[in-house]
Every structure is written in structure tokens, then in C-alpha cells.
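Assess this one:
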Amino acid sequence: MKICLIGPSYPFRGGIAHYTTLLYRSLKQKHTVKFYSFKRQYPLWLFPGRSDLDPSAFVIKENNVERVLDSLNPWTWWLMFIKVKRYNPDLLILPWWASFWTLQFLTIAKLVKKFTKSKLLFICHNIIQHEASALDKLCTKLVLRNGDYFIVHSIEELNCLRKLVPDANVKKTFHPIYEVFNYSPLEKEEAKKSLGLIGKTILFFGFVRPYKGLKYLIEAMPTILQSLDVTLMVVGEFWENKKKYLNYIEAFHLQDKVRIIDQYIPNEEVRLYFYAADLVILPYVSVTGSGVVQIAFGFNKPVVVTAVGDLSNIVKNGQTGFVVPPKDPLSLARAIISFYKGNWGDKFIKNIITQKSKFKWDKVVECIESFFLKG
């Protein structure tokens, strides 16, 4: 099949850039693929982090990626269409994750639908972005109703899409695993020594935003510390006010037990934090899915997640981790204490190794191909 893929890639950072690049890597094993990426994603004043450029020394990139699209330059939107038209693919794949891309992707989608015979597939990371407004929902509907096919990674996203595009031809498949960060083995004690850690360690990883529920994990720490001596690592750039979390930590006298690394973690350093951790915690209040679980599974790390979105379908309670109610510090604490006192680690790791084949990138490629199967 002849495929055109548009989306972020290196030198841009973050989960969507990694996802699109790794999808291209898998697609081109079986198909003829053109990958067009961005010259510019966001204006600096709009991006909530410090920069959208990847500072990593170990970069996740592919050759033959042509950078065309500038989010603020409509001429490049037209140029992107011209390149798609000349390539004449059977399928054009676009990611969808934020209404910021309404004008750009709507322009490309409308032109492709009118002037080519290419089918259009949206891979929907977020149908409606977090903290969305009514305008965001309207913009999303305007863009997505141009799709021929859709892929989502959770039941919630599937249901949300059907509300916006009732007749959508949509398939659900698991969010694929990120083993790319686990590029070289590292002993746990060596990782801990590099980070200045001693003893039991749990990890919260990723951008800090209200829906991530970090507040509840901090509130769980006093209960945990009554039974165990544990260090919590909070690793990721704060996209909201950090001071309130520092106030929580001070109020619970946790200054010696919570370590905050407020920065985007370069790819080559990700393995340090996951190898050092015994358990990865996702205390999310609301979410559809999470790439952090798939990073953890890429390192064979057990997780504790909340029963929101599709997390309880990805994490098998009592097999690859624990699933607890959201906004419940006591349940979080009990799960973490149980993990250590019940010696669940080896069992969870064994099950993760056994079960993670269902999260391979090939599964996403097969899902894409299935739209074209006859009968």
C-alpha cells in the first residue's frame, strides 16, 4: 500500500512526535511510505512548556523525513497538499490531539478529499483535548468529519468520536509499547547510584497537569511512610503552578521523601528513572490512555493506575499492576504498601513480559491494514 504520513517528528519532542516516528518505522517495513513533518509546531507564547524542541543526545528519528508544515504559514498548508497530490497515496494518515491544528489539518483534509482519491485516516490521541472548551469541540468536529477511517486507543475515545461523527468507521487498538527508551541494560542499583537514591523508590513520570492527580499521590505518602521507607520521584516538566505541590509536600513534612525533577527528560536519561524505580504510579483523575504505562511496560516495570479511561484494560489488576479508584489517596497507599509487603514485583514483571506482545507496533499497522481488507 502507498501511504502518506503527516505528523511531528524530531527535532520536536514529546509523545506524539515519538509515536508518529515509530509508526513510520513500522509502516515502512511493509508499505511504501512518505513521511512529512513540521518546520514549526507552536508559537512559543502558546506552548505551555519551556520549548517544544527535543534536547536529547539519543534521538528518536528516521531518515527521509521531509519537514514541510509550518503551523503559522498557510502557504505551507497548500504546499503540503500539493506534495500529497503528487505522491497520490492510497492512504493519508493524520494524527489528531489538539484543536490548535484545526485550520491546518482542515485545509489539507478538504483539499485532499476534493482533489484526490486518497482515503484519510485520523489516528486520534485525544478526540477532545484536556480542559477543552465548547469551541475546541466544534473545531474537532469540523476536522474529523472529513475522515474516512479512524483509530483510537480507548473505549472512551471511541464513544467520544461517535458523538461527534456518528457514522465514523473506527477501530480501537491498544496504545503501542515504547521499548525504544530501553536501548541498553542497566542495573537497578547503578541507576539509583547515578540519581543519588537509596532504598525503595516509586516513580511519577511525565508532564504535571491537573488531570494527572499528583496531589493524591502526595497525600498518600504519609500513610505509605507509616509502613515503608519509600522515596517518591516526581519526574517531568510542570505545566501548572509548582508551588502548590511544594506546599503539599511541606504541609505533610515530606521534603526528604519526595524528589522533584522539574524538566523534560532527554531520551537517554529516561532509562535511569525507570530502572531506578520499583513501581510506576499513575494517579490520574481523568484520562483516556497513557503513553507512560507503555514506557513502564517497555522497561518491564509494574504500575499502579487509577480506574479511569482505558487504563484498567491495559493494566490487569493483580497481574501486571494494581488498579485503584481515582481521587483516593488511601487506596493508592494500600496498593503501594501491598506491592512491597506482598512481594508482587517478580510476579508482575513475569506477566508483563508474557503479555506485552499484544502492545507491539505491528498491531497498529495491522489495524490500519484492516480497513482495506475485503469481506
